[in-house]
Each structure stands twice: as structure tokens, then as C-alpha cells.
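Example 3.
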Amino acid sequence: MDALVLQLLNGLDKGGAYALIALGLTLIFGTLGVVNFAHGALFMLGAFCAVAMKQLLTLSKLVKDESITFFDAFKEEPYLKIWFGDTGAIIIDYAVPISILLAIPVMLLIGLALERGLIRFFYKRTHAEQILVTFGMAIVLQEIVKAMFGANPVPMPPPEIFAGSADIGSFLGLGNSVVYPWWRLVYLGFAGIVIAGVFSFLQFTTFGMVVRAGMQDRETVGLLGIDIERRFTIVFGLAAVVSGLAGVMYTPIVPPDYHMGMDFLVLSFVVVVVGGMGSLTGAVAAGFLLGILQSFASMNEITSILPGIDQIIIFLVAVVILLVRPRGLMGRKGVMES
Amino acid sequence: MITATPRNDLLLMVFFAIAILTMPIWLSPIGAAYPDLLQRFAIYGIFAIGFNLLFGLTGYLSFGHAAFLGVGSYTAVWSFKLLSMSVVPAVLFGVITSGLFAVVIGYISLRRSGIYFSILTLAFAQMSYNLAYSVLTPITNGETGLQLAQEDPRVFDNLFGTAMESGSGIPPTNLFGLEMSGYSGFYFCAVLMIIGFYISMRITRSPFGMMLKAVKSNQNRMSYTGLNTRPYTLAAFVISGMYAGLAGSLLAVTDPLAGAERMQWTASGEVVLMTILGGVGTLMGPVIGAGVIKYFENIFSAFNDDALHEIFSFLPDVLQDGVVAVVGLFVGEGWHLTLGALFVIVVVFLPGGIMEGIGRLSRVFSQKKTIEPTVKTRAQPGE
Amino acid sequence: MTDNSNKKFHLSRRRLLTGAAAVGAGAAMFGGSPMGFVKGAWAANFRNDPGNNSFVKFGFNVPQTGAYADEGADELRAYYLAVKHLNGEGDGGMLTTMQPSSLKGNGILGKKVEYVTGDTQTKSDAARASAKRMIEKEGVTMFSGGSSSGVAVATQSLAQEMGVIFMCGLTHSNDTTGKDKRRYGFRHFFNAYMSGAALGPVLKDEMGTDRRAYHLTADYTWGWTQEESIKNTTEALGWETVNAVRTPVGAGDFSQYITPVLNSGADVLILNHYGKDMINSLTQAIQFGLRDKQVNGKNFEIVVPLFSRLMAQGAGENIKGILGTTNWNWSLQDAGSQAFVKSFGQEYGFPPSQAAHTCYVQTLLYANACEMAGTFYPPEVIKALEGFEFDGMGNGPTEYRAADHQCFKDVLVVRGNENPTTQFDLLNVVQQVPRAQVEYDPAIFGGDLGPYEV
């Protein structure tokens, strides 16, 4: 029982990450009709917003380290600590949440620049060309990050108060053997808030209404005299922000490196397609479904019967769902089928 | 650019064959004329030609073609291990096995179209890769890759006494005694590639090819006429898978080791990129695309700062350091950056890939004689 | 592009005989220089003989893209330094401390050392392609590099086929000098068996004999050999192995494998992961509070059998207090290590990693063997390396065992530093385990070196 509860939590946590990435991807698919292979790179850029923020906060004065004699070595003393003492230390401790403030404008700008500078020329081109250009862009972004931050993962600890584990077992009356890291709970909550935010934005604003109408039938919306182009640009920026935020908050769970976007790229496509092209609810549902299934498939009881199942479960589920439901869980007819 | 008459096809064929067979000469000035890279040009050319038969003709974008490449490789190496070091059974079994594999995956995946088809093929390929890397290690030797060993049975070789004397190491792969490494390996691959190119041309020009193109342009209309398109697309898928299997077995022929990463999605993505980069649906494009990507991977990655200093040694020292520092970002460990930038530039300015660029150039030249003034406007990129 | 048109068609006699008719004709037709072809085949009779050239070329084949790019970059730095020192530039580094040494600081056998580089992408296919370019096009006499055992084994067997010596960089699997050993491959780095043997007594001292271990193992050959080696050691101590779970390579999020540890009754977690997997699984295991746990009345412990300082940087605070082993650490105080750290630090401004160390040493060892043999002819160089005993290279008295081409030397048991003074001061040496304690019979892993002549 404990094990099942824990795996459910793991699944929800993974699912939260998958859903956040898939949400942005499906927004771009559904509204713009673009197969965006640079989406993983946007997630990675978000994570590196956090890294950049942390480096900014820990800008340091180099103090010569006398303990090392055979070459010049320096110790780092962050200016924030020198200037503000303990307050400075607290600010540094909260680097990850603070970097959300940096990530929103930066990711928005990157998204707008990408759409205006590159993507908009590809609305009418074939999917193959969209794949080539966005994949090329992803490699370029990735290599720039590598040149700036190196190839090694960068440790990004969560703030001190979220560092330990929450004793949710006692809280739920399951005994004290069910513990779960605070930060993962924070991430789950954060994913929920962002997903709810995106949905209410699309549901309750005029802008969102137009975008949803555009997802249904772009031509008609255009004929109604609505400047759909400008809205597309904003949607792309929004999608970039969503995946960027997913990246920022993910850094304490998996230390970011320049290649992390590629690791998520295939997976996020699978999630979107399983959810059904152009369906936002489908993407979120598929994200959580695949996350939970992946967690349960990794249990020792299951891998001992079916060795290797944990490695392929996501793809196996994708195959089965697509065969049973031709357009994924909630896909609409005619989207991306030609 | 050139109309497809039998005579033009013959010319193209002859031109292609000569170009391929003389690669060791004309690639030498750009540093690409050494056996291993030449072999790779030919092998990945075959892979891309086959992929283009599916994608270029039917429009079905498979994201799992690397699985067939991997299956072909594994089969070939097993053939070397169990049967004989001769390449004939290895290539035959490699093509057949991957063909069978393609029948199964194609039968299931072709029930869906568009991106759903792509994801199905991707899922199958990733499952193959993940299993080959881990639980199937007894068959695939996992991460290290399947290798030959001294104590392999090699039944036929031992039966007919063609085995090497003991203590001389593992015998080489051979075609009736001719060793398949180095230049002979390249010519073997090149001949197979020329044959593969010829077959792909025949298919493209045949009624079957027309049918596939019709599927691409409007599958619904085809269905409304009462025609079941599935057998045609499945046939294209299987043929394309067999090309991939041939390429995979040739990889094992020229270098008898099969690694699981050949099946990873990045390898599937690579052939997609090769085809699009060269020009989807053109005969020559995929071959050129494959060549460009392999060239970058093998030559651009090999420049280091010292080599760059040597190249730019004609510049004054101060300038030289600056140039080397800038160029250094794009070669050596930065070769991915150049590749990525190349993808973007090609697709922005040449929607039809490199072949379109060549087409434009040839138009420029053919028009030069007649209407000189319009040349400049025609040469402008489309965007 | 380079001046090797005359070396393009160096073939061994056997290859020449079998392929003479077809290849010969083709080569003479297309090659440009039939003279080089004839000379290469008969005069020296081995591939890439530097002959009368004034230089000898090495190939450095390291990961420059992908997860191990930083480690590859550090290896390259070490190679550059080694080449510099061999050519008599710089302060000489370990050339001054190596014993016995035939190196004179004037290149090798009077020839200046040059090098070419390549990218393995940490994939066996790409690594072999890159190595073949070095051998076929650039004409290297030796190549070297590492960061993955799969790649090392794959390139090592290529070395045997091509008849060019491969000096392994970082590779830790037992297979490299066990079941997949090759006559043309040499490993200075230690292996999983030695990690286990070195860790055993320290684990006993620190954690006692009544422990229950839970393994998380990267699901590929290196992970398996390490799991097996550590299991053998700990079970010999009297520990019980609760479970050994295989995790997919590059899983990223290991939470679904870590939560079952919580209630498994185990009190030690052994992470048979390397690189990114190690960083992620360790970071996450600590987030799940494993290190603060009490099980069976004991403190829960985590062990990472193979540590790398470079990679440990990615795990940040989380490595504090964690036990593991390394081949070498820059804080060692012997003359060889100090000389190396000094020249590396002066050149680049930070200390070298263990990967850099092993690559540097391997280059020097090969050069020295050529001087000893008086030739670049591989069988003679191999014989000079086999059984070679040396000192002053940072690991105490060391022997290149002839039976399996594995170096035997002291192994370091280290612990993540609780109070690092600098960002490089991540590992404390707990014990320098003497060589005698980690030696084993080469027969236990089987394998066959193969012939000298290919």
C-alpha cells in the first residue's frame, strides 16, 4: 500500500512535468499548425534561466586561496553575502523561485523572437520543413548554451526549507514510512497552477476565445477580420513561457545540462499524440496517464514478471492507444493527418 | 528540372555511376577520400534512397527507420558469427530479416496516417532500441555492440576449410576471398548503391510509383475511387525497410560490429534530415544530403585549434588568433552548431533542399546565354 | 589537405596478398602515389609507420559532444600537455618523475609528436568512424581516448583489426581487460573489480558486517560488471543483498526506483551509476531523505563505487560524506602527482581530473615503450609495455600486467568532502589501498588477447 501511494505520487510528479511540456507543444500544434522540434530546447532554456539567475546572484569576489600552492587558486565570496550578510544568503538560497521572475520575460522574448524571426515563415510549409528548421534551431540554441555553461550538469539545490521530505504518511494516516520530498510536492502544485492558469486564460478571456476558435477553424476566424497572425505570435510566446517555467522549477529535481531538451523532446511528442493532436485537455490527461503508468511499471513486482517493461511502457501504451483510438485520447478529426 | 525521358534517365544513371565510382579522386581535395568515410557515404546514401522511396513518394514520414538499420546490422553480424565470413549470406539475411520486420511494423503503423503514423514508427523503433540496449543483451551485446569473437562457430567456413589458421586473429569479412575493408569495401557498397539507385528510379517511374505519388497527393480521393491504398503503401514501406536493412548489413560488412545506438531515435531523425536537406522526392537529393551530414560529422568534428592555426598561418598573428577563435566555435566540439545552422539556412532559403539550389544554379546557367538581365532576379532566394 | 597522400595505402602483407588484384589496381589508379604504396608495404611492414618522417602522429579520440563533453575536454587538455612535455616544451611534468624512463624530451625516437583529434559522441559507431579516419586518413601510429567502456571495448577491437595500438582513457568495466581484452589495447585506469576489492575493508570498518544493501544499477554492461563486483565483495563481508534493480540509462528522474528503497528494509544504497545518471540518482536519493534515515537501528548510507570529481561537481552538496573510489585525485602528495598538477594548473588554471590523469599517463607510457623498443613497430612496442614496471606516475609502484594489459596500482577510497575549501576540493582520500589488496587472477574474467601480428 505504501509503495503504491509513493508510486502514485511519483507518477503525478512526472506527469506534471510531461503535461507542462506537452501543453505548450500542443498549443503551438493546435493554433499554429507547426511541428515544433525546438520545444525541448525551450524547456532547456527555461532551466538555464535559473542557472543564469543563480550565477547572477552568486557573482563573487575572488579571494586568493592560500591553501593551494602549486597554482593560483581562488575562493569565491558572493557580493550579495558581502553586502547584505544573512539577507544576501537567503536571497541566494531562493535562487530557483526568484528566477521565475527572470524566466517569464526572457522566455517571452525568446518565444516572440523565434516566431517573428523564423517560425512565421513556415506556417504554410510542409511538416518536414518545419521539422528540419526547428530541429536545426534546437541544435543551435543547445550549442550556444553549451558554449556558455559547459556540458556538465549544474547543481541547483532547492531553497533550504524545501530540501527535506514531507511526512505525508502520518498526515494521511499511513504511518511514517510514506515520505516525499517537499520540492516535488511544490513542483506538482506549481504544475497544477500553471495548467489551471493556461486553461482559464483560454476559457475566460476574449483573447483565449479567439485562439480556441482559431484552433477549431483558422480560416473562418481569419475571414471574420480578426488579426490571427498577431495572436499566433502571442500564443507562441505563451507556449515558450509555459515550457520555460516547467524547466525552471525542474532544476532541483534533475540538475540541468544543455542536452536535457533532447531527452524530453521525443517523450513530449508521444504525450501530445497520445492525448490527441490539438487537444489541450488530452495533452494534460496523457501526461499524467503516462507518468503514472511509467512509475507503476517500474515496480520490482512488475519488472520481475516482465523484465524491461519499465523501459518501453510509454511507447507500448502509445501504440495501444493509437490503435484503439485512432486520434489519441481526445484528438479531433483532420488535425495533422496529412 | 530535367524531364524524365528514358534517355535522360540513362544519362542520369551513367553520370551517377561515374560520380560515385570516382569519389576517391574528386573528394580527395576536401579531405574526404579515405575508405571509411567513402563507405559511409555509400551506405548512408542507400539508407536515404530507401527512406525517400517511402517519404518522398507516399508522404508517410517514418520516424523509426533506424530500427531496420539496426536489425540489418545485427542479422549480418550473426551471420558472420554463425555461418560464414562471406558477405553474401550476411547481406541477404540482413535484407530479408529487416524486410520481415518492416512487414510487421508497417502492417500495424500504416493503419494510421500523418503524425500518428510517425509516432507509431517512432514508438516501435524506441522500444527496439531500449530492449536491445538492456534486456536483449544476450542477442545484441547491449551497449558495447555485437562483436565477432575468435571462438565463433562460423559453420560454413569451417566446413569448407576456408577458415584462417589458428592464432592469426579473427578472419576478415570477404566477398569470395576479397577482403571487405578499405577501398574494396567501398567499391562493394558503391556498386550496391548504384543498383539501389537504379531500382529506386525504376520504381519512381513505374505505375506503382505513380500510384504512390497519388497516395501522397490525395489519399481520400484514392479511397473514394474504391481503391485500397494500404497494399501499395505497405509495399513501399517494406521496400524502404529493406533498403535500410541493406545499409545496416553493409555497415556490418565494412566494420563487423553492431551497436544499439544505430536504432536510437536520433539515428531515425538523421535519415529524415538527410532526405529533407538533400531534397525530398528527388532521386539524387537524399544521396547528397547523406554525404553532407556524414562529411560534417567526420571532418568538421576533427578540426582543433592547432589544425586551424595551421590553416590560417598565412594571416598575421593577431588576426590569426581572432579568426581561429571565431572559426573554432563552429568546428571541433562545435560542429553540431554548424550542422544546426546549416539546417536552418538551407530550409529557409532552399525549401526544396540542396537539389533545389542545384536546380536554381543550373537554371541560372542555362538562362545566362539567352536573357542575361533576368538572371539576377531569378537567383534571389524565395523568401 | 595534409601530406599523407603517400601513406594512404599502407597495407599489411596479408591484406595485400588477399586483396592485391582488385585493391591494388584501384589504389594505383586512384591513389595518386603508387610509390608510397610500394614502400609502405615492403619496407617496414606495418600500418602507419612514420618511416623517415620527422614527426609521429597520435590520435586523441574523446567525447566532444553529448553528456561527457566536459570530461572529453579535460582529457584533451591532458593530451595536449603530454605532447608538449614529450616534445620538450613546458616544465616536463611527469617526465621528470617517471621511473624508469627512457624519455628524453626530444619527441619520440627523435621524431616530434603531432596529434589529431576526433569526437566519439560516446557512441561506439561514431567512435569507430572517428578512429578509422585517424588511422586511414591521418596515419596515426597510436590512438587514445575514453569516457565509456562500451566505446573503449569497441575501439579496442578495431585497434586489433587495424594493427594500431589503442591506449584506453577512462574505462572502468571489467570487460575491457577481461572478456573483451585485446593485444593492441592497454588500460591504465582501474576497474570495477578493483573498486570492490578496495571498498570492501573500508565498508567493513565504517559500516560493520551486518548490513543490508540495495543496488540501483545502470542497465548496461558496465553497470552489470560493477554490480557483480561490489556484490561479491559485500556478500563476502557478510552483508545481505536485498535487491538489485536495473535502471534505464539516461532515465533522468529516478524517483520510481528510489521510493521502493524506502521501505525495503535495506540500510545501504549502492548506486552503480556514472556520469549524469549518478548525479541524478544521488541528488534524488538525498532529496528523498535517505541519508537522514535510520533503518535497523543504523544510519542509512549511500555508496557510489565509481566517483569522478568532474561529475561530482554536478551533484553539488549531495556528495558530502558519500564513499566511493577513484583512480587518482589531484590532492595526492607524491612527487609525480604534484608535478602533473602543477604543470596542468599553470597551463589551465584548475587542477586535472582523474580522466585527464590517466590519459596523460597513457600517452607517456606509450612514448616510453617506443623508446625502450627502439621502434614504432607495434608488436615490439606491445612487448615493451607488457610487464613494464614503473613508478612516479601518481599511483605508487605500478605494473602493466602482461596477461591482460591491466595496470595494477594503488586504488583510492574517497569520501565527499564535508567542508570543501574550493570548488575543486570535493573529495577527501580516506585510504590509499595498496596494490596487493586489489590484485586478482586474470583467468577469472576469461577472454583472449589475440595475436601480436595482424
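Chain B touches chain A through 46 residues (CB under 8 Å). Chain B has one domain: 6-278.
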